[in-house]
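Technical annex B. To support the medicinal chemistry partners, we prepared a structural model of the target in complex with zinc ion, based solely on the information shown next.
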Amino acid sequence: MVPQRIDDDVVVELQYKLWSDGELIEESEADDPLVYLHGHDNIIPGLERELYGLSIGEEKEIVVSPEDGYGYRDPTNVEEVSLDELPLGFRPEPGMLLEVQDEDGNVYVAQVEDVGENTVTLDFNHPMAGKELRFQVRVTALREPTEEELEHGHVHDSSHHHH
Ligand code: ZN
C-alpha cells in the first residue's frame, strides 16, 4: 500500500526552499529531494509537525520559530582556542566552518567568529540558531519504509552511508 498522506512511519520525499531573514538560504535540487522517515525526529520539530496530513503534490508554507527549529544562540557556546591547536600553517578566516574533534572523538562544526594574533574565536552554535525559518515545501512522493529502515528510525538509500 502506498501511503496517501504524511503520517508517522511514512517515508516522505519533498522539495523545499528555505528562507531566513528574507534571504533564500537553501533549496533542494530537482534530482536530489529531501527524503526522510516521518515521526522519528529526523527533521526539526516545527517542520515535522506541520507536514502531517499532506498528500503527494501538495504544497505548504511553514514558518518555524527558533524554539521549534535550531534553538537559540547560547553565548557560552563560544570558545577561544589557541592557534597552536590548529593544524600547522592553517590560517582560519572569519566565517569559515571548521570541524573540531574533542578528546572523545566527537566531531563538532564551529564557525570562525574572530581571528586574533594567537587565538581564534570559535562559535559552536548552529548557524541557524536563533533564526525564524520560512519553508516552502512540495511533497513529491510517499512510500512505506522497509523493516530495516523502521527499525533504525531513518531512511536508507544508495546515496548515503549506512549507519
Ligand atoms: Zn540504518
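Notes passed to the chemistry partners:
The domain at 75-123 is CATH 2.40.10.330 (Thrombin, subunit H).
Strands lie at 11-20, 23-27, 34-37, 59-64, 78-82, 97-101, 107-115, 119-123, 133-143.
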